[in-house]
Design brief:
Length: about 260
């Protein structure tokens, strides 16, 4: 009886009375449920359920969710015949795949020289990514497409976390479903989506975390992924200059009032 009583007390103390253990058990069960959702359900259904869970409970682990989210949506999007000839499917993804296949024999000097001659479609960061991918993985189109989609969806997950660290799943759902044309762009306009995600991540890093060097590198490098980011970078630069001038005027007015 004494031994049973000691065992009962130790169990109550470690698993029931200790609130940290209760929280850890709840977090484990929630995150295990998230993994099972993405394993056995359509990614859209799993994401919707996770958003509801995240709205009522913020214990979803970001790393576990982002890996499962990126993996499941990547597998969904790569279910396509990527070896079809360009004459059958002449659209952006197949053009990117063709550029990946023909990028092996290029050099860095050739990439930058081509960008200076014809900037449109020859952005150096994108071309270097294709060149490195071709060297590292060879002529494996499936691995290339899978790696690119994984990067895009991991960037989406990171953008959601930057907007709201607790309700990041809700933000991701808004990005995917509320943003007009986002899913269509992910399916067929890779460079456009990639560049804008890098741009907005750079802005959020600058505004919220004040990592000025990294954020500026991301903001301005988005132009070298796709020239479509030029208007966004220009507007952001004008906005920054205007806010700085307004802040200087306010400081000078306050200083004059103090005098």
């Amino acid at each position: 009886n004494l031994v049973n009583d000691l065992i009962r007390r130790s169990f109550i103390k470690t698993h029931i009375a200790n609130p940290k253990n209760r929280i850890a058990n709840k977090e484990f069960s929630v995150n295990l449920f998230v993994v099972l959702l993405f394993c056995f359900l359509n990614p859209f259904y799993a994401l919707s359920i996770c958003a509801f869970l995240n709205f009522i409970n913020s214990r979803i682990n970001y790393r576990i969710f982002s890996i499962m989210f990126a993996l499941s949506f990547t597998l969904l999007f790569i279910l396509r015949n990527w070896t079809a000839p360009l004459s059958i499917a002449l659209n952006d993804p197949f053009v990117y795949v063709s550029a990946f296949q023909t990028s092996y024999g290029r050099s860095l000097s050739d990439i930058y020289y081509q960008f200076l001659l014809h900037p449109q479609g020859s952005e150096p960061i994108w071309q270097i990514y294709l060149w490195l991918s071709r060297i590292l993985i060879g002529d494996h189109i499936g691995i290339f497409v899978m790696s690119l989609y994984s990067i895009i969806f991991l960037l989406v997950a990171y953008l959601g976390k930057l907007v709201d660290r607790k309700r990041f799943v809700v933000v991701i759902v808004c990005i995917l479903f509320v943003s007009p044309g986002f899913m269509n762009n992910v399916f067929g306009v890779w460079r456009h989506t990639f560049a804008l995600l890098v741009f907005f991540i750079g802005i959020l890093l600058f505004e919220f975390n004040k990592r000025k060097l990294i954020s500026r590198i991301l903001i301005y490098s988005s132009v070298l992924i796709h020239l479509v980011a030029i208007p966004f970078v220009s507007l952001y630069g004008v906005f920054t200059l205007c806010t700085r001038s307004i802040a200087r005027k306010l400081r000078s007015n306050r200083f004059q009032q103090i005098k």
